[in-house]
Amino acid sequence: MKAMQVISLTLLSVLAVSAEVLRFGRCPKPAVQADFNSSMYIGKWYEIMKLPTFFQKGECGTATYSAKSPGVIGVLNSELLADGSTNSILGSAKVKDPAEPAKLEVSFNASPPGPYWVLSTDYEGHSLVYGCRDYGIFRMEFSWILSREPTIPEETVEELHGILSSIGVDVSKMVPTNQDEAFCNAMSQ
């Protein structure tokens, strides 16, 4: 038991240092997008803001979703790294329960699946994604504000922040993603 506590504390220390959003308490169970339609969700989305993660270090982030099979969405995430190179990763998102199609589990390569819950989307302008994992008495939160365009109206950001705040997410921890056209042009070269 003592060894397990040391391992747990070590894991939590590593996660806390890696810029993750680690908080006390269990994950909330927020409402998700009603009647989620994955066929309307596919296509390219620009990352506008996110809670910091260890696996995303670049700017100009995009997520491109494609239909693979019923209940499965292909995922291509791309970002521009500080050295000017492009980092991309392929994965898939699967509906966990057909009764709640907005609750997906996303996995990349051999990684275990993680929650990808669409809390809000209008399919044409914005998407608010939330994920959370419980680690004992702690939880690790992930969240992204996505847009079909490289920018999004501030009123929409405020509305989406309100949704996150209502479930206890500290939106002051969210960081903007640089989507400046001139800066991000290197991704298309």
Provide a brief overview of the structure.
The protein has 189 residues and is of the alpha+beta class. The chain is 20% helix and 41% strand.
Structure, described:
The protein has 189 residues and is an alpha+beta fold. It is built from four helices and ten strands, in the order H-E-H-E-E-E-E-E-E-E-E-H-E-H. It has helices at residues 2-17, 38-41, 154-166, 181-184, and strands spanning 21-24, 43-50, 59-69, 72-80, 86-95, 103-108, 114-121, 126-135, 138-147, 175-176. An eight-stranded antiparallel β-barrel has the order 2-3-4-5-6-7-8-9. The protein is globular. Mean pLDDT is 88; it is low at 1-19. Pfam families: Lipocalin_2 (PF08212). One of its GO terms (biological process) is lipid transport. It is found in: Secreted.
